[in-house]
């Protein structure tokens, strides 16, 4: 089935540890995104990538890092520098065009710092 | 003023009611408008996508855009308990792929 796969669904992290969230898509989309969702905050863009080996910071990139070595994959690392990492993380993808970009989401990953 | 405003609710309606969900925006550069539905602990799914002012219908759902008033709406006819979810509006202002802005979402509950 075509879609976006995020793993793991639930992840617990100890303070001071880095963790990596996986995102894979088989939709042949060029663009991929990472969003963070907190209660009452809506969706906030962390990073996005329009093409392999290139990515741009979003509104809340501090404490996060990404890579885009393959078109299908866009992993997100939550580093120990991120002060409040507990949140719901959503990966998304879209085609790239000059006339609007409808994005499609994965099922999300819940990260809890313990 | 925030770029996109959306009443968080919660909104509770009886089954069969017509539901109206709304967003306002301040930036006239927004060109494309979307509505997403998000069930609890799931990723958002795209419901409707519109560009021009006017109405777009898809089954029980109608999306309405009024660019002159900077106001968009989603109407749900004959609402069902399965429509209970959070509804997010989203708008793209062109240029970079990162220029997609989401509202905070309205939580809807349809009571049987």
- Spans of at least 5 consecutive residues with low confidence of chain B: none
Strand content of chain B: over 45%
- Using the alpha-carbon principal axes, give the shape of chain B: globular
**Cα Rg of chain B:** 14 Å
Largest sheet of chain B, in brief, is: 6 strands, mixed
Q: Report strand % of chain A.
A: over 45%
Rg of chain A (C-alpha, Å): 13 Å
What is this entry, summarized?
In chain A, 0% of the residues lie in helices and 51% in strands.
Describe the model:
- The complex is a heterodimer of chains A (114) and B (112).
- With 114 residues, chain A is mainly β.
- Chain A is built from no helices and eleven strands.
- Chain A is globular.
- Chain A starts with a strand and ends with a strand.
- In chain B, strands 2, 4, 5, 9, 10 and 11 form a six-stranded mixed beta sheet that branches.
- In chain B, strand 6 and strand 7 (61-66) form a beta hairpin.
- The interface between A and B is medium-sized, with 29 and 24 residues.
Write the layout of secondary structure elements.
The complex is a heterodimer of chains A (114) and B (112).
Chain A: E1 4-7, E2 10-13, E3 19-25, E4 31-38, E5 42-51, E6 54-57, E7 64-66, E8 76-78, E9 87-94, E10 104-105, E11 109-113
Parallel strand pairs in A: 2-11
Antiparallel strand pairs in A: 1-3, 3-8, 4-5, 4-9, 5-6, 7-8, 9-10, 9-11
Chain B: E1 4-6, E2 11-14, E3 19-25, E4 32-38, E5 45-50, E6 54-58, E7 61-66, E8 71-76, E9 85-92, E10 100-102, E11 106-111
Parallel strand pairs in B: 2-11
Antiparallel strand pairs in B: 1-3, 3-8, 4-5, 4-9, 6-7, 7-8, 9-10, 9-11
């Amino acid at each position: 089935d075509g879609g976006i796969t995020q793993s793991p669904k639930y992840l617990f992290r100890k303070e001071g540890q880095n963790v990596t969230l996986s995102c894979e898509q088989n939709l042949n989309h060029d663009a991929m995104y990472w969003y963070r969702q907190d209660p009452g905050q809506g969706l906030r863009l962390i990073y996005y990538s329009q093409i392999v080996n290139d990515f741009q910071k979003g509104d809340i990139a501090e404490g996060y890092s990404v890579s885009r070595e393959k078109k299908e994959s866009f992993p997100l690392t939550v580093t120990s520098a991120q002060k409040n990492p507990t949140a719901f993380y959503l990966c998304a993808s879209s085609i790239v065009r000059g006339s609007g970009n409808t994005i499609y989401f994965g099922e999300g990953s819940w990260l809890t710092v313990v | 003023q925030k770029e996109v405003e959306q009443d968080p609710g919660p909104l509770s309606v009886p089954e069969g009611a017509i539901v109206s969900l709304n967003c306002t925006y301040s930036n006239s550069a927004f060109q494309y408008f979307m509505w997403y539905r998000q069930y609890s602990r799931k990723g958002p799914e795209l419901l409707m996508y519109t560009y021009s002012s006017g109405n777009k219908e898809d089954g029980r759902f109608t999306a309405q855009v009024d660019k002159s008033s900077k106001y968009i709406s989603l109407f749900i006819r004959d609402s069902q308990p399965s429509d209970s979810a959070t509804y997010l509006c989203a708008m793209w202002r062109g240029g970079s792929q990162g220029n997609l802005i989401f509202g905070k979402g309205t939580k809807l509950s349809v009571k049987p």
